[in-house]
Amino acid sequence: MLDFDTAQAQLAAAGGHPSITEKCSLSQARGRVLAQTLFATLDLPPADNSAMDGYAIRHADYAAGKSLPVQQRCYAGAKPQDLLPGSTIRLFTGSLLPKGADTVVMQEDADESNDELLIQHVPKLGSHIRHRGEDIRAGEQLFAKGSLLGAAQIAMLASQGYAEVSVYPALKVGILTTGDELVNPGQPRSDEHIYNSNGTMLAALVENMGARAIHVLHALDTEASLQSALATLLQDCDLVLTVGGVSVGEKDLVKPAIEQFGGSLDLWRVCMKPGKPVALAHAANKPIVCLPGNPVSAFAVFTLLVSPLLRSMQGRTRIMPPLGYGKLSTQKEFKDSREEFLRVNAQANIEGHTHLKPYPQQGSGIISSLSWASGLARIPANTSIKDGDIVPYYDFQHWLA
Ligand SMILES: Nc1nc2c(c(=O)[nH]1)N[C@H]1C(S)=C(S)[C@@H](COP(=O)(O)OP(=O)(O)OC[C@H]3O[C@@H](n4cnc5c(N)ncnc54)[C@H](O)[C@@H]3O)O[C@H]1N2
Ligand code: MOO
Known about the structure:
Blueprint: H1 4-12, E1 22-25, E2 38-39, E3 49-50, E4 54-57, E5 67-74, E6 88-91, E7 103-106, E8 110-113, E9 116-119, E10 129-130, E11 141-143, H2 151-159, E12 164-167, E13 172-178, E14 182-183, E15 194-195, H3 198-208, E16 212-219, H4 223-236, E17 239-243, H5 254-260, E18 264-268, E19 272-273, E20 279-283, E21 286-291, H6 295-314, E22 324-328, E23 339-348, E24 354-358, H7 368-372, E25 375-379, E26 390-395, H8 396-399
Parallel strand pairs: 5-6, 13-16, 13-17, 14-15, 17-21, 19-23, 22-24
Antiparallel strand pairs: 1-12, 2-11, 3-10, 4-6, 4-7, 5-9, 8-9, 18-20, 20-21, 22-26, 23-24, 23-25, 25-26
Helix pairs in contact: 1-6, 3-6, 4-5
The structure holds ligand LQZAQKY5 and molybdate ion (MOO).
Ligand LQZAQKY5 is lined by residues 177, 179, 181-182, 194, 196-199, 243-249, 252, 274, 276-277, 292-295, 297, 364.
């Protein structure tokens, strides 16, 4: 059985990088990956402007008790006049700073009446001005090729006037659930059936990462059914995820189906709990990851082993999210011959320590543990871990992004 870290590295390197690029409007760019490094086209802000609703003055014109005539009311979006000596110009947040002005007085610190301004407090030279280029300078690098575009990146690109960007095509993922015991939600169910939860779960995980789950197919436990579904997925998708039928049971036919399809098995079985029967194969030059059927195993394997591969195939440069650490908070002692990944809920206390509380039931069919947990705590193999021990923590917020 392969050790977990080797398997993770092997899966992360199992897919190709995108080779073609496409244009995408900025409004559609959330979750897409930049295919070119982008630079600032202009200084940000592009001109000195007011940070407050107030008045522009020349600091040297201030004298206690002396009123300044209001020369102009200059709204954001309007052009200011040059500030006359001994005058003030009424400004609003975002109004351009008039030429000749060097200070903005907040309106709360002054009284205006009959077009005259009386300043109540000694103003600080240069206050409340946002200077041209203080945020970003024209020519500076904004985001490197391979960056994931989220709201923060999109805000910066919009502020720089980018209406469209060059991105990699969205990765096309195909999902294949297997098993005669499964019926789709909404269908009639008999006692021997359970609802198929892995199909929609995996599609949601894929879509949350900015890839597209373009097929979610189901195959019965027969070679013909599996092969027909695999043919469609290998034709249409960049990456195939199968789930179930990958262990040692008599109806665990996924691996033979891939082999009959001309595929080669790269690895099978990893020393991890849950997730042991996971397999990696290639067919038609495309990676196929076979996830174990237990819902918790499929979720954990997707988080730890599939997500880095998916990020790499999307063209992202950061494929391994940061690892956290926390103190296990438990009555129980853990020790197993496999690396164990517990569903835990992380809570930070006032001293800044993260406490990781395991869900009471850790079975790989316990679907309720998934929505409860904030991530996975790693219990190293063959090591006794008890309350208060510090362990690595895989936060879903990072690992499923
Ligand atoms: N004799 C052994 N038995 C098992 C071993 C083993 O090493 N020796 N490994 C166990 C482990 S660990 C796991 S994990 C499971 C994985 O088996 P498979 O990947 O072949 O999955 P299935 O047998 O098809 O299903 C397992 C379980 O999950 C349910 N399932 C499957 N698909 C779905 C779905 N789409 N939605 C909801 N639930 C699903 C299925 O009904 C089973 O209960 O094997 C152990 N056995
Ligand atoms: O190792 Mo399996 O993935 O627990 O249930």
